[in-house]
TrEMBL record:
<feature type="region of interest" description="Disordered">
    <location>
        <begin position="147"/>
        <end position="192"/>
    </location>
</feature>
<keyword id="KW-0862">Zinc</keyword>
<dbReference type="InterPro" id="IPR050457">
    <property type="entry name" value="ZnFinger_BTB_dom_contain"/>
</dbReference>
<feature type="domain" description="BTB">
    <location>
        <begin position="31"/>
        <end position="103"/>
    </location>
</feature>
<dbReference type="GO" id="GO:0008270">
    <property type="term" value="F:zinc ion binding"/>
</dbReference>
<keyword id="KW-0804">Transcription</keyword>
<keyword id="KW-0677">Repeat</keyword>
<dbReference type="Pfam" id="PF00651">
    <property type="entry name" value="BTB"/>
</dbReference>
<dbReference type="GO" id="GO:0000981">
    <property type="term" value="F:DNA-binding transcription factor activity, RNA polymerase II-specific"/>
</dbReference>
<dbReference type="GO" id="GO:0005634">
    <property type="term" value="C:nucleus"/>
</dbReference>
<keyword id="KW-0863">Zinc-finger</keyword>
<dbReference type="InterPro" id="IPR000210">
    <property type="entry name" value="BTB/POZ_dom"/>
</dbReference>
<keyword id="KW-0539">Nucleus</keyword>
<keyword id="KW-0479">Metal-binding</keyword>
<dbReference type="InterPro" id="IPR011333">
    <property type="entry name" value="SKP1/BTB/POZ_sf"/>
</dbReference>
<keyword id="KW-0238">DNA-binding</keyword>
<protein>
    <submittedName>
        <fullName>GZF1 protein</fullName>
    </submittedName>
</protein>
Amino acid sequence: MESAPVLLESKSSPINLLNEMHQLRLLGHLCDVTVSVEYQGVRAEFAAHKAVLAATSKFFKEVFLNEKAVDGPRSNVFLNEVQVADFASFLEFVYTARVEVEEDRVQRMLEIAEKLKCLDLSETCFQLKKQMLESVLLELQNFSESQNSEEESAAHPNVLPEPRAVVGAERDLPDSPATPLEVPAAKSKEKM
C-alpha cells in the first residue's frame, strides 16, 4: 500500500541561501565575475557570482547568456555611469533582499534598478517612493487643515468686541478702525 505524498517545504531555506551567498561574496569565495563600475572618474571593482546576478538582473542574465563560446566565459563586466555607492547598494540588495539608503538616493536606486533590469529592486523603490509621497501628502493635508481651522477661528472669534462710541472727530478720519456696524449708525445720526 502506497502512502500519500507529503510536501516538505522550508520557510528558512531561501533566507539561509541568500545569507550564505552573501557571506561567500563578502569573503571572495567562489566568485566568478568582477563588475567594474565607474562614474566621473571614480572607479571600483566588485566580486560577485554570475548565478546570483543573472537570477536577479535581466541585464546580467542577457550579458552572461550571450557570451560567445569563442571568447570563453566572461569574468569581467564594465558598467560606466553607475556610481560606486549605488552599485554597492545594488549588490547588497540582490544578495540580502534589503538595503538601507538615504531618502535622497531612492530615486538613484530606482534608476540603477531600471538600468540593470532588476524587477525586485524597482518594485521596492517604487513602493517606498509611493509611501514617501503619501506621507508628504498627509503632512500637507494636516497642515492645510490646521491653517483652515486657524483662519476660521480668526474669522469667527468666540468673543465679540465691545462696540465703540463714535465721536464726531473720529468719524471723519480715514484711518479710524470703524466696524461695519458702526458706519451705518454714524450715517444715520448724520441724517437726523
